[in-house]
Write a structure and sequence with these properties.
Helix 1 packs parallel to helix 6 (146-161) and helix 3 packs parallel to helix 6. This protein has 2 domains: 31-173, Glucose-6-phosphate isomerase like protein, domain 1 (Rossmann fold, 3-Layer(aba) Sandwich); 187-306, Rossmann fold (3-Layer(aba) Sandwich). Helices cover 44% and strands 13% of the residues. It is α/β, with parallel strands linked by helices. It is built from 13 helices and 9 strands.
């Protein structure tokens, strides 16, 4: 891999596994009943936590391309601050660990099933949820990678089944090769570690990927990183940035030129600036899959440079069972 030393970590193995896993998942059957539940739904709610919430947000965008009313939110918000949900709605619960350690995702699934909603789960193999769409085996690294991109692919397949041209089978078939290209040449060589803060940003779907990239970098390397939608970054969040920070633009898209304009403003303010570009010939929303892989490799590189373990992330008091068990459904 260009720009990328080998590490022998579980994270690197998971990253490298993605082209093969995505090819496999392109041919995994999706039950007709699952597709029909979504087709018949009035609205579709996509819920998840952390990385899975980012998948929910991109999944909603994919379903918008199918002309469907789809809404993404965190699992905790859906459970404790539920929106007005109609009995004709569907709920897509996204969790690599649903039914296990992701308490609020499990609660969202249980709540939806108890209410008689059309509930679909996207989770890992062997997750033991009824009629779930299963993706990959439990990840060995705490810094999840292949479970995220595989969930995105299955969401794209569902959107394609509902009529999204951007997620048509012939489009999705190009994704594994785009991921291979990202692994071979991540295109992140200009992104050096800042003294203080790394800030990633993008427009629309790339803004979601910016938040996912920041999360992976924080997990793998313990480097402070933040991700923003470009408009939100412009409206005040960029003000404290200076020479000890680095901005990273994720493109495409850049519909009105705002992503590039913010980069020019950063350079005028002497803020170090890089661009990570996804060159694959893919619609913007599904191009986030190979673009995310580039960010995963950046997170791995930073971990190696800083001497951190990207596979052991949530430990000590942050891993306490009583903390992670809050919000779980009653037995």
């Amino acid at each position: 891999m260009a720009d990328q030393p080998t590490s022998g970590t579980a994270l690197e193995r998971a990253i490298r596994s993605q082209p093969g896993e995505l090819e496999r998942l392109l041919s995994v059957p999706i039950q007709h009943e699952t597709v029909e539940r979504l087709k018949q739904a009035h609205r579709i709610w996509l819920v998840g936590t952390g990385t899975s919430q980012h998948a929910a947000e991109l999944g909603a965008a994919m379903l918008h391309d199918a002309g469907r009313a789809a809404y993404a939110m965190s699992s905790m918000r859906f459970v404790n601050w539920a929106p007005p949900v109609d009995p004709q709605d569907a709920v897509v619960v996204i969790s690599h660990n649903a039914g296990a350690e992701t308490a609020y995702a499990a609660a969202a699934y249980t709540m939806g099933m108890s209410a008689g909603l059309r509930v679909i789960a996207i989770t890992r193999r062997g997750g033991r949820l009824v009629e779930a769409i299963e993706t990959v085996d439990q990840e060995a690294s705490h810094t999840y990678s292949v479970s995220y991109t595989s969930a995105l692919l299955m969401l794209a397949r569902l959107a394609g089944e509902l009529g999204a041209e951007t997620c048509a089978p012939e489009v999705l078939a190009r994704i594994p090769d785009a991921v291979r290209a990202a692994i071979e040449d991540p295109g992140t060589g200009s992104v050096t570690r800042p003294e203080r803060l790394l800030v990633l940003y993008g427009e629309g779907p790339s803004g979601i990927t910016a938040r996912e990239a920041a999360l992976k970098i924080r997990e793998a390397s313990r480097l402070p990183a933040e991700g923003y939608e470009v408009e939100y970054l412009l409206h005040g969040s960029a003000v404290p940035l200076g020479r000890s920070d680095r901005l990273v633009a994720l493109v495409p898209p850049d519909t009105d030129g705002l992503v590039e304009a913010v980069g020019r403003a950063a350079q005028a303010e002497s803020i170090p600036m890089s661009v990570v570009r996804e060159p694959a010939d893919l619609p913007a929303v599904v191009a986030q899959i190979p673009l995310t892989v580039r960010a995963q490799l950046l997170a791995l590189r930073f971990a190696l440079e800083r001497g951190t373990d990207p596979d052991r992330v949530i430990e000590g008091a942050w891993a306490a069972d009583d903390l992670w068990g809050l919000g779980a459904p009653s037995p």
